[in-house]
């Protein structure tokens, strides 16, 4: 198979390219060129803001795989390449769904309205809806739409899924205590980037079409913490704080600075990390044990440097103060 990967030089794109190369496919990456493509792939440097960018590609492709979140890029690609690419796969997101409070929804759940303006990260879900619409309009029954939830594994530069394993391995406090949300109803639903990449390549090779929630079965957030503690060898205290306490202390959910990664308020997000994966499983999606992903992510975090400034989570100094405050509140 001759595969075009639009992107392919960052985290998930790189995993897709490596999986395709392992299977013996010819891979061409089209990206800005500020990072190298994985060894064995051909890099075509181009800026997709330029409508003529796709003229740098030569020949036909059996399939293309795009990871874009920019609607103009999605529309431009399928318009320019429809006659030269037989099958099209888009990595979308479960953030396209309109309802986050209904557990267990499948791919037929209502979507957010497609964004019709210039790309805005605050409109990430709506922008991905517009990307999906562009691909489906051009390719119809030859289109594959993958909607992953949160992606984990070595290389997660968002610093979300590595935060807890690293914090449990290197607590901020002298006594090993770690601040965690008291959220018995909250769930997490993670897929390893390597498993997602493997399925995307194999599904593309088979010509699989349709829309799929490409993630894993959900588990309780508390069970995730237990797994991460076991992998990290953590035996310190868990200082639990409830949702109101978190709000009162201006800690944000999910990701970003001064956040508790992976945690989302309940019940308004009761369905966000509980999407049905039945269709993707029937289409061959296989995922490794979550413990393996946690272990490998922790190893990558330790190699990247546990003391680095993070994009998500609490800083160690801030957590020490917050734990002291939480303990004083309980007295």
Automatic annotation (TrEMBL):
Q: Transmembrane ranges?
A: none
Superkingdom of this entry's organism?
A: Bacteria
What is a single Pfam family found in this protein's UniProt entry?
Epimerase
Family matches, as SUPFAM superfamilies: NAD(P)-binding Rossmann-fold domains
Tell me where in this chain the NAD-dependent epimerase/dehydratase domain is found.
Answer: 83-209
Q: Which InterPro entries match?
A: Epimerase_deHydtase, NAD(P)-bd_dom_sf, NAD(P)-dependent_oxidoreduct
- Kindly provide the name given to this protein in its UniProt entry: NAD-dependent epimerase/dehydratase family protein
């Amino acid at each position: 198979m001759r595969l075009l990967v639009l992107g392919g030089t960052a985290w998930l794109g790189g995993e897709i390219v490596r999986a395709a190369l392992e299977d013996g496919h010819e891979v061409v990456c089209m990206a800005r060129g500020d990072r190298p493509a994985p060894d064995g792939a051909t890099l075509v440097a181009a800026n997709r803001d330029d409508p003529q960018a796709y003229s740098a590609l030569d020949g036909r492709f059996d399939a293309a795989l795009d990871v874009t979140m920019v609607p103009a890029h999605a529309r431009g690609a399928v318009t320019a390449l429809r006659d030269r690419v037989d099958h099209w796969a888009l990595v979308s997101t479960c953030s396209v769904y309109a309802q986050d409070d209904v557990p267990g929804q499948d791919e037929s759940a209502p979507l957010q309205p497609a964004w019709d303006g210039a790309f805005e990260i605050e409109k990430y879900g709506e922008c991905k809806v517009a990307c999906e619409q562009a691909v489906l309009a051009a390719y119809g029954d030859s289109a594959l739409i993958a909607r992953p939830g949160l992606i984990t594994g070595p290389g997660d530069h968002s610093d979300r899924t590595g935060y807890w394993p690293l914090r449990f391995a290197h607590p901020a406090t002298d006594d090993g205590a770690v601040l965690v949300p008291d959220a018995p109803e909250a769930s997490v639903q993670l897929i390893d980037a390597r498993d997602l990449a493997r399925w995307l390549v194999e599904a593309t090779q088979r010509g699989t079409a349709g829309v799929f929630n490409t993630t894993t079965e959900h588990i309780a957030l508390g069970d995730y913490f237990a797994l991460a503690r076991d992998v990290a060898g953590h035996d310190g205290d868990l200082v639990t704080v409830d949702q109101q306490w978190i709000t009162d202390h201006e800690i944000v959910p999910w990701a970003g600075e001064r956040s508790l990664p992976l945690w989302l308020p309940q019940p308004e997000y009761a369905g966000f990390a509980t999407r049905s994966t039945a269709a993707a499983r029937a289409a061959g999606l296989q995922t490794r044990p979550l413990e393996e992903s946690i272990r490998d992510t922790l190893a990558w975090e330790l190699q990247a440097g546990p003391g680095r400034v993070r994009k998500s989570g609490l800083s160690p100094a801030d957590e020490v103060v917050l734990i002291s405050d939480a303990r004083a509140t309980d007295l």
